[in-house]
Amino acid sequence: MNRSTQLVGWHLHPQLADDTHPVAHFALSDLQLMDDANHPWLILVPRVENAVEWSDLDDAQQAELTREINRACRLLQAEFKPNKLNVAALGNMVPQLHVHVIARFHEDIAWPRPVWGMATAQPYSPEELVRRIERLRAALA
Fold first, then answer.
1. I want to staple 109 with a disulfide (CB 3.0 to 4.6 A). Which of 9, 39, 69, 119 is the partner?
2. Strands laid side by side in the 41-46 sheet
3. pTM here?
4. 3-class secondary-structure state, position 68
């Protein structure tokens, strides 16, 4: 995959830019941390211009995104030992294709319901944010 071709005209949706923090650049996607300390929550955003739906990706991009989702899942499993992972590409509020990977725990604030709309997001403190991103980057290295 040619990253420079993917980036032509591509930009992170403003809502995702406001709600997330960069963690890593994968071959196809930017890996972002959702600014909600209630849950270890990653978002993958393929750097493909005008991608709204999974079907907007070609076969090779779909295969790469699947690999990257699996990588994000393994990262959360290894680092946080969740009871369950939620993986979803909803896009109801933000049309840009993005995939949520959320570590869930029996004792979390929303369990067993979906995380959306269950509790007010708790932004990371600046210190917590730095620690969380450093932890995730170290685990990816």
1. 119
2. 20-25, 29-34, 41-46, 99-104, 84-88
3. 0.92
4. helix
